[in-house]
Design goal:
Ribosomal Protein L25, Chain P, Alpha/beta knot, 7-stranded parallel sheet, tRNA_m1G_MTases_N, PUA-like_sf, cytoplasm, Ribosomal RNA small subunit methyltransferase E, Alpha/beta_knot_MTases
Length: 253
């Protein structure tokens, strides 16, 4: 049976005893009822992983003796999702699904046709919820890395980010129902990084598509169906996993 993954930062060295307490310790010891003799995988959220055996258990706390350390490589190409803000009930779902599908990072985008409006304190709360959703989904899907979530971007900020990625030799794919190319038409296997741009429920404004393509983005069709904004990135990441070597890595055990 695969060992359960929990997050701890920093990770102790081999031979040391890690103390898993706080919310992670509560979940492990009280909710999951993990006990002495069971094995755990601890990750720092940035690719460093430690393997160990539980040598002590108390309420809301486990002591784990570390007997192995390793560093897991980053999947190539890295994929950052520029996600137009979905409606409230689907906002965190978009992050959860894309994290489970392998997204390396998220950029919340206040695009022109977003129903949701993140301003001031609401933007801070929204980004925090996305970061919490990414961390929970990373643990659920046994990932060693938690995707980074940027602060809210406006369209000029997204245009600048797209320009940077394209300038570094990356591919920026804008999921758009009016595109003439398909995602599978892009040469992705040897690119260092990708950016996926996902519009809101009302679709991308033509001015936004024009601004993005002007700095190197490519509008693409994902398939014949029109997907919800909350599921589009996850489906695209699945396709990218097949079209590249991103899914070649062994699972975290």
């Amino acid at each position: 049976m695969a060992a359960t993954v929990f997050f701890l930062d920093p990770l102790p060295e081999v031979g040391a005893v890690a103390v898993l307490d706080g919310p992670e310790g509560r979940h492990a010891a009280t909710v999951r009822r993990i006990g002495v003799g069971e094995r755990l995988v601890l990750a720092d959220g940035r690719g460093e992983v430690a393997d160990g055996e539980v040598v002590g258990a108390a309420k809301d706390r486990l002591d784990v003796r570390i007997d192995g350390r390793r560093s897991l490589p980053v999947a190539t190409p890295t994929v950052t999702v520029v996600q137009a803000l979905p409606k409230a009930e689907r906002s965190e779902l978009a992050v959860e699904l894309a994290t489970e599908a392998g997204a390396d990072g998220f950029v919340p985008w206040q695009s022109a046709r977003c129903v949701a409006r993140w301003e001031g304190p609401k933007a801070v709360k929204g980004v925090t919820r996305w970061r919490n959703a990414a961390a929970a989904a990373a643990k659920q899907s046994r990932r060693a890395r938690v995707p980074e979530v940027a602060d809210v971007h406006r369209t000029p900020d997204v245009v600048a980010a797209v320009r940077d990625v394209a300038g570094r030799g990356g591919v920026v794919a804008v999921l758009h129902e009016g595109a003439s190319q398909h995602l599978a038409d892009l040469a992705l296997r040897d690119v260092p990084e990708m950016m996926l741009v996902v519009g809101p429920e009302g679709g991308l404004a033509e001015e936004e598509v024009a601004a993005l393509t002007a700095v190197g983005a490519v509008p693409v069709l994902l398939g014949p169906q029109v997907l919800r904004t909350s599921t589009a990135a996850a489906v695209a990441l699945g396709a990218i996993g097949v079209l590249t070597d991103r899914w070649a890595a062994a699972p975290l055990t």
